[in-house]
Design goal:
lipopolysaccharide transport protein A fold; 32 strands; mainly beta; about 450 residues
Length: about 450
């Protein structure tokens, strides 16, 4: 009697559907009741249903199944409560929890306490204390939605991903999903994968548009032997085939790697094969500024080539300037060459560093082993083109004096370095300059010696 009563109580005169995740409200059919069930009339043709001792049911005309220790159907509110060891298997969702409530009128399922939800289309998994699941149904909503709070953990794969695809592990105070490919997270949000990690106050991922957004003290880290980090006011991710291919810092950008640091208003990092390949920077509020172990480069815009996260070449465009330190123990050169690179060249004399400036600059690095045997990028060539100027400190003929100063001008200047020290300077196109040897040491004072004798 209880089985027939439950079926009649839950049925509504609606069209049949083969997939309960896409069609009508679930028409529940109770298959078994482990202990007892009873019904209470609450109005004309309305009955509340109570069943316990292990309940098994399914949605009529579909493969959706439900199981729990106990079940309560409230006819006045059109609400089904499942209590204790809840197991729901839909065509698109697998849900385990200790408590669940299904609100039939708005197609809403609420689950609480040890919730584990699996997206059966792509294998994404959500674990947390609660979940609200809105089913897709004609006339109500056309796309599945989910919402969870209290820092759930999500292994997120996105639309079209296979179960073998490495997921992004997402943790946040609250998360919301729409369909299989859009999600939002707020409150101390993090994303982790073997090659990639992020931190921010809030984030959004839209795999349809191929865009991710991080706001609120965002930070991105590339993992591996040659790791990198990127911070900014706002960070955007470019997604392709569920992989991050572009990372953009918009406002107060700062990128840091093992061999270099880059600061600018805007920084774009290009990623391929899960490794950083190139960094582009431009801006006016924070003028692009790149610093390596022994090199400092400023320009209106900068491009760094870092194939597989190894620095090989840097290019500066527009009022480009570079200063070379003699060794890594010297403090970083701090100069603002925005208005006049000539002022910076004068300053290079004061701080005793080698400088070069031009309309454009190209600096090239090669991999060398340091004293500890580790591979490091070391600069071996700098080329300035267009109104090129260079100031260099060269060893003088007399080892007892300081270095000689050489100032050169031309259409182009090519500086070759060995062991991070200038080896050869080539100036081309209307070349001129000046070479200043240091003052020789004063001869010994023989007059005082002769008077004493």
């Amino acid at each position: 009697m209880i089985l027939a009563t439950v079926l009649l109580a839950l049925q509504q005169p609606v069209a049949q559907a083969a997939d309960s995740s896409r069609g009508r409200p679930c028409l529940l059919v109770v298959d078994t009741v482990g202990h007892e069930g009873r019904q209470v009339e609450v109005g004309p043709g309305l009955q509340n249903i109570y069943a316990g001792g292990g309940v098994r049911a399914h949605c009529q005309g579909t493969t959706t199944t439900l199981a729990s220790d106990s079940m309560v159907w409230n006819a006045l509110t059109n609400r089904l409560d499942l209590l204790g060891t809840v197991r729901i298997r839909d065509t698109s969702l697998s849900l385990d929890a200790n408590l669940a409530a299904y609100y039939r009128l708005d197609e809403r399922l609420e689950a609480h306490n040890n919730v584990v939800a699996v997206n059966r289309n792509n294998g994404s998994v959500l674990r947390g204390p609660n979940l609200v699941y809105w089913r897709a149904a004609p006339g109500i909503r056309d796309t599945v939605e989910m919402y969870a709070t209290q820092r759930p953990t999500i292994h997120y794969r996105g639309a079209g991903a296979a179960d073998t695809t490495e997921p992004y592990v997402i943790i946040a105070d609250r998360v919301r999903f729409k369909g299989n490919d859009r999600m939002w997270a707020g409150g101390s949000s993090t994303i982790d994968r073997s090659d990639f990690a992020t931190q921010s106050d809030s984030m959004a991922l839209d795999q349809i548009a191929g865009v991710g957004v991080l706001i609120g003290s965002p930070r991105v880290q590339g993992k591996g032997a040659q790791s990198y980090t990127l911070t900014g006011t706002r960070i955007e991710l470019g997604l392709q085939a569920r992989d991050v291919r572009l990372v953009k810092a918009l406002g107060d950008g700062k990128a840091t790697s093992t061999d270099w640091t880059l600061a600018a208003d805007t920084i774009h990092l290009a990623i391929e094969r899960r490794k950083l390949q190139q960094a582009l920077a431009w801006g006016t509020k924070v003028r692009p500024h790149a610093v390596s172990a022994l090199q400092d480069i400023q320009a209106d815009s900068l491009a760094l080539d870092v194939p597989d996260q190894v620095l090989t070449e840097g290019r500066g465009f527009g009022r480009a300037f570079s200063a070379s330190k003699r060794d890594s123990t010297v403090a970083a050169v701090k100069m603002d060459c925005t208005n006049d690179t000539a002022d910076c060249l004068v300053s290079c004399v004061v701080v005793a560093v080698d400088c070069i400036a031009g309309d454009t600059l190209t600096a090239r690095w090669a991999q060398e082993r340091d004293s500890a045997g580790a591979q490091r990028s070391r600069i071996h060539q700098i080329i300035a083109r267009g109104s090129a100027r260079a100031l260099s400190h060269l060893p003088s003929r007399d080892s007892t004096t300081g270095p000689a100063l050489n100032y050169s001008r031309g259409k182009s200047i090519n500086i070759q370095l060995k062991q991070a020290r200038i080896d050869r300077v080539t100036v081309g196109g209307r070349a001129d300059g000046v070479h200043l040897e240091p003052r020789p040491p004063a001869p010994p004072d023989t007059t005082a010696q002769r008077d004493s004798t």
